[in-house]
Write a structure and sequence with these properties.
There is one protein chain. The protein has 99 residues and is an all-alpha fold. The chain has a domain of 67 residues: 434 Repressor (Amino-terminal Domain) (Orthogonal Bundle). The chain has five helices and no strands. Helix 3 crosses helix 5. The longest helix is centred in the N-terminal third of the chain and has 26 residues.
Length: 99
């Protein structure tokens, strides 16, 4: 039985644009997953987090349910209140070479 990894490999080979979309969704899911886990660790409700960030409760609920993707400003507000850092680093599979 093929795995998710096998399927992603197949999609990347047959349609690289859709493969990029899959990668983007997985990255966003990882970021939001960390956010949810940290909120739970701090024993905060969605409403409490939203109030701390000056956001509507519905915004936090939509982000956590995957119904909307946060813009960078919103994500940084949430991460700041959760005492999380957003870090950018080169991808291991980067095709860009340093000169």
């Amino acid at each position: 039985m093929p795995t998710w990894i096998d399927y992603k490999k197949h999609v990347r080979e047959t349609n690289p644009e859709i493969g990029k979309d899959i990668d983007e969704v997985e990255t966003i899911s990882q970021i939001v997953g960390v956010m949810i886990e940290r909120r739970h660790d701090l024993e905060l409700s969605q409403r409490e987090l939203a109030d701390m960030c000056g956001l509507p409760h519905s915004s936090v609920a939509r982000i956590e349910s995957g119904k909307s993707t946060p813009n960078l400003r919103t994500l940084l507000k949430i991460f700041r209140e959760l005492d999380l850092n957003l870090v950018a680093e080169p991808a291991a599979s980067s095709s860009h070479k340093e000169e």
